[in-house]
Amino acid sequence: MRRKASQQGIGDAAPTADDRAFVQVVARAFDVMRCFEGAGAELGNQDISRRTGLPPSTVSRLTYTLTRIGHLSYRPDLQRYRVGAGAVALSSALLHGMDLRRLVRPVMQDLAEQVPGTVGLTVRDRGDMVYAEYARSAGTVGLYSVVGSRISLALSAAGRAHAAGLEPEARAALLRDLRAAAPGPAARLEQWLVGGVPQLRRCGCITSCGDWSPHINGIAMPIPMPWPRTPDGAGFVLGIGVLASVFDAARLHAEAAPLLLTAGAQVSALLNVLPDALPNPPTPNHEAPPP
């Protein structure tokens, strides 16, 4: 059974047979935890097996272990699992430790009110973009998400801004992995990039209209990192989602783009004074850690 794109390590170097430092069971445990998306998500072992492509017996052992250490909670009446207190505490500690979220929130909220629309600060996780922070204007209708929500890298404005901002070699690797896991979205992303990469270079941001949802158009920009640029493009993307019936591509460029670029510069300045809040930049080599 084929795994979901987000479970297959899209954009990550796949472990090779001679990679003795790679612990497969740890990777599989994180694959299981990634299945629990959205508030109150409850899944049985069969659900998790279908989502990850892992054998049911393997899933059963993983969910048992994750329950024993508190990262999952089991409901015997439903024979289903949900995220446990251990995982919540771990993620809460991480998010509360990110002073960046507290500082960028006013910038994002102001941007959301000016457009008006929804604003997301996202970071890549394999084949998805994950919301690290989120803001929306009071009058926005039909657009809603929460911190931790995932959206398609291949089809969303945020994901496309990320892909367009990669170095050519890293972009080619991303497309190669995505083709193997999700050929349809990969083909659409590749076709979009023909015009999207020049658009990013020319304008500093990109637009993506109707691909993630026929009712939603988006505009996004990668946020420059304070460390020297790395080929795999570690970092955030700032984006705006709007109703397609209100904003077409021309209006996005005319009205939303200047506001986005200004907000992006503000967020970038905050990143430069908060290096400890950022995703760790990749090390210059991939040597295995000492045993």
Which keywords apply here?
Beta-Lactamase; disordered N terminus; 8 strands; two-stranded antiparallel sheet; 291 residues; 18% strand; Arc Repressor Mutant, subunit A; 6-stranded antiparallel sheet; disordered C terminus; alpha+beta
Topology:
Layout: H1 24-34, H2 45-52, H3 56-68, E1 72-75, E2 80-83, H4 85-97, H5 99-114, E3 118-125, E4 128-136, E5 150-152, H6 157-164, H7 168-181, H8 183-203, E6 206-213, E7 216-222, E8 236-243, H9 249-273
Antiparallel strand pairs: 1-2, 3-4, 3-8, 4-5, 6-7, 7-8
Question: What would your notes on this structure say?
Answer:
- The protein is α+β, with helices and mostly antiparallel strands and 291 residues long.
- It has 2 domains: 5-86, Orthogonal Bundle (Arc Repressor Mutant, subunit A), CATH 1.10.10.10; 98-277, GAF domain (Beta-Lactamase, 2-Layer Sandwich), CATH 3.30.450.
- It has 9 helices and 8 strands.
- Strand 6 (206-213) and strand 7 form a beta hairpin.
- Helix 6 packs across helix 8.
- Mean pLDDT is 79; it is low at 1-13, 227-232 and 275-291.
**Amount of helix:** 40-55%
Low-confidence stretches: 1-13, 227-232, 275-291
Query: Could you give the distance between the termini?
Result: 34 Å
- Biggest sheet features: 6 strands, antiparallel
Major sheet: arrangement of strands = 5-4-3-8-7-6
Would you state the CATH class of the largest domain? Alpha Beta
Alpha-carbon Rg, integer: 19 Å
N-to-C order of helices and strands: HHHEEHHEEEHHHEEEH
Average pLDDT score = 79
- Counting DSSP H or I runs of 4 or more residues, the number of helices is 9
Which structural class is indicated by helix and strand composition? alpha+beta
The CATH homology group name of the largest domain: GAF domain
Number of domains: 2
Question: Do you know the CATH topology of the largest domain?
Answer: Beta-Lactamase
Query: What would you say the CATH architecture of the largest domain is?
Result: 2-Layer Sandwich
